[in-house]
Inverse folding.
């Protein structure tokens, strides 16, 4: 297998880095988060455990990077309306949360993050930063279009959207219907009050 | 101690039942969810493990009942407005999620629920049922007042409110400010779009 033939003991080797992320993704999908160990990831990736610990603080941080790497890349949607942009952001979020590896990892991963003060302190400042910057861009455009006012509590809206998707899909385990993103965007964007 | 003097081996004994719930609440608060075991709860409550397993499927269900029992009792708020009722529901939710035992238990508890198909299947139908019935009552009154329309996706709104509080307070660990419930009620109720 390509993975086990990845070169050993070369920390800056990009192939080793990728092999570790791939092995973590595969093991979490096959065994679940709790049963995945750093030792098993190292063995499958063909590296030493020390190579993993030189790059990641532990299982939670490694699995987070392995299952959520794409997040960083996604550019902010620009559909021309706040409702459209929120729907696009939510569709991406639902896709991330429902990808097999992420779905298998998410509950245990969130529990480890919440239970570890060091990681917990980095959630807002680091792990949620890319998603927030996309949301900030979306709101800046919406303010320019007069769709919302400048003092929207962006962190709170981000927590609301991410929490809703986690709770609905990740925890309760609902199969996300085609309308879920639009419905959540409507709740957050237009609210449930009739005017 | 009263707890350890609770009578043994009498499944229907209400004092034993209460002693088990109290012991579970204390241990989760002292040790955290992961470090709390059925054996330790049984020892502190002065009952046998079999007494616990006769009543609860395992740690997750026991801890859930121990830290969230009050939920069932709460009547639906009736402040006269949807925003006011949502704020009241959210204040109760924030209080539940931030109570020491619940805060200590929540991440690990949710991970166990999500990872256990049997428990997961009961989340919507059983564990969320009291909260949903309160929300349904609130929406029925809001529809009568013309504040919202009859086809509000109640389950989705419930997941959104609960998910937002979990993510913001339970996961990210924000100290809930006095305005949090009203801000979340505004996001869900009036939305973030300006009309």
């Amino acid at each position: 297998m390509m993975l086990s033939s990845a070169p050993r003991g070369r920390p800056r080797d990009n192939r080793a880095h990728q092999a570790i992320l791939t092995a973590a993704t595969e093991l979490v999908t096959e065994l679940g988060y709790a049963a995945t160990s750093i030792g098993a990831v190292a063995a499958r990736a063909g590296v030493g455990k020390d190579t993993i610990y030189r790059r990641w603080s532990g299982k939670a941080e490694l699995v987070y990077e392995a299952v959520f790497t794409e997040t960083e890349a996604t550019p902010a949607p620009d559909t021309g309306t706040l409702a459209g942009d929120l729907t696009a952001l939510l569709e991406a979020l639902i896709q991330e949360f429902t990808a097999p590896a992420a779905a298998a990892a998410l509950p245990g991963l969130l529990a480890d993050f919440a239970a570890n003060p060091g990681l917990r302190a980095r959630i807002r400042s680091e792990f949620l930063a890319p998603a927030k910057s996309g949301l900030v861009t979306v709101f800046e455009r919406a303010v320019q279009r007069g769709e919302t006012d400048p003092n929207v509590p962006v962190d709170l809206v981000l927590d609301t959207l991410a929490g809703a998707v986690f709770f609905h899909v990740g925890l309760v385990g609902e199969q996300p219907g085609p309308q879920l993103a639009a419905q959540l965007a409507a709740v957050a964007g237009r609210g449930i009050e009739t005017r």
